[in-house]
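pls ignore typos typing on phone
beta-D-glucopyranuronic acid + seq
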Amino acid sequence: MKKSFIVIMLFLSALMAVGEDGYNCWLRYVPVENNNLLLSYKQAASEIQVNGTTATIMAARYELSLALKGLLGENIPLTKDIRKNGSILIGNAGFLGEGRKSLANDLQKAGAEGYLILTTSINQKKSILITANTDIGVLYGVFHFIRLLQTRQAIAALHIISAPRLKLRLLNHWDNLNRTVERGYAGFSIWNWHTLPGYVDQRYIDYARMNASTGINGTVLTNVNADATVLTKPYLEKVKALADAFRPYGVKVYLTARFSAPVELGGLKTADPLDPAVQQWWNNKVNEIYSLIPDFGGFLVKANSEGQPGPQNYGRSHADGANMLADAVASHKGIIMWRAFVYSNDLPDDRHKQAYNEFVPLDGKFRKNVMVQVKNGAIDFMPREPFHPLFGAMQKTPVMMEVQVTQEYLGQGTHLVYLSPLFKECLDSDTWSNGKGSTVAKIIDGSLDNHELNGLAGVANIGNDMNWTGHPFGQANWYALGRLSWDHTLSSGQIAEEWLRMTFSNDAAFINDVKIMMLSSREIMVKYMNPCGLHHIMATGHHYGPGPWVNNLARADWNPVYYHKADFAGIGFDRTPSGSNALGQYKAGAKKLWEDSSTCDERYLLWFHHVTWNHPMKSGRTLWNELCHQYNSGVDSVKWMRQVWNKHKTRVDAIRFRQVAMLLEIQEKEAAWWRNACLLYFQTFSKMTIPEKYEKPDQTLDYFKQLKFPFAPGN
Ligand code: BDP
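k done
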């Protein structure tokens, strides 16, 4: 062998030994390091019997074999009939014959998508049975079982019954057909429309695996700012190829429907939803889609919002528009997710109030297969918002929640911000719609108002970067979306711990520290970006970095000054009856938390009140000093996050360690940028000094104002 060849090989193997590229996300099947545990796992998994041959059961078999090989370090043989103690049987309960009867109760609890994992006796041999009423339930059960091993749980006596609390567990991709991703920070779209349908990238299958492992069961492939081209025949064939790739994993495909498609594609003069020719056009289009994709999920629609066409262009209501599409998909069991993210420049009213005012009168007017999709907060995916007042206000309509997994306003691709606490904060909020305890979670899971149709969607943070999400910790937010949509009662801590164990390491010291860092990260981001209820003070267009001074945009409610209303007297948006009275859209129980500026939960103070710079805060500080304190403590906390991470250098592979370390360094700089720019700007109104003990801004306000980022991603 040539010497140079050997040197290259050594170099390559050294490289491979030091790092991981993150592609496998949490489906990393690395050897179990504890010998006792390894032995017990080997004893419990000495052979596998698989009942069934469908594509979904084959996917389950593939995953289980792959995982066991990686975790246990050996190929586990398949058997047709269990002969040994310590076997695993996977399969649909339909194969269990008489044995099924004894499981009737458990199977009933598992429902259509849930599963059982039981330690039991099969052929008089101690075995683990993973079964369900459906094949997809079996696959979910297999992923759960694998997770037990990945997180090093004991598996000697299992009795697990699990069923999803939500029916629709969706990703919303804001991916354009040219492969740019609106608000995407992880490269280009993973959908390579040009090479589809002929070329089905392995990545599509791995995407489906990742989703199924968390319970995600649907994906909207295209941007809500929709392009009608995706509804043309050649593109529908590409969509079909994706649907075929995802189907074994239970991931249904949905598309965004551009409301003006009948005009743009069909050559009609109108897209009026009450026009029979328009209705016919959609019926034909829908039939065409279902002839290619029999289990097509339906449409997500952004209409009459931010320049998108919609029924109001023809003097019709959102219900008229949604119902027309709902009628077209109904016979195919399709659904329409109609977004409530609407606000109009022509209305001088507080943007906070507009969706509620528009949609509440339509409650009860939608077809059965329409869901209204509402963002978690009333404005727009801010670091902290009160829950959207539409939750609990449309009891006759299934309302689903939309959260942003991609971090448009939450640090984009450079900040480590674990979002489960944000999602849970909204889910756990009490709307008081049916008295105390009417949480957003109970509204979106349908239990409060008895809705069969229910769901949660997250705007995806996925792109074609090697590790899918750009920031390695972005994967945790994708994972958390899936886990919470399966079971919103899980705690953020449990989800973080599972994810850390599977993605990085089972080392206790590492998990303890990094979990605390993850759980604190959202609050830290709020402090250095939007403390005390500030919101929408980011720079224009790309939304990267601070821009509280911006006051020159075409629409009043696009300008940060519209939201913070800083003046010489004070700061904040008065949403009490003396101001916009957005508070009036909440029930008394919820309102109570916020209505009085002297008792208001301070995390929302400037969201609901305009208060003086000297307003006394619970800390004993004035508002101005509190803002200085919070901005500084946010920055200091990012320094702490860096220390936590650096402490665990030896516990993480070198590549991912360095990626996170570099990103945390950027995060610290950007946190200081937010602090300095915001304090200097607000100081022009407060005329107060930044207390001595805090670090002084290193640049002038003018410097921050002139920063430009013409090629910032996601715009
Ligand atoms: C805003 C985003 C914009 C989206 C819009 C939406 O900046 O890119 O199109 O939300 O949700 O936050 O429709």
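The first strand starts at residue 47 and ends at 51. The chain has three domains: 22-162, 168-503, 527-573+610-705. more later
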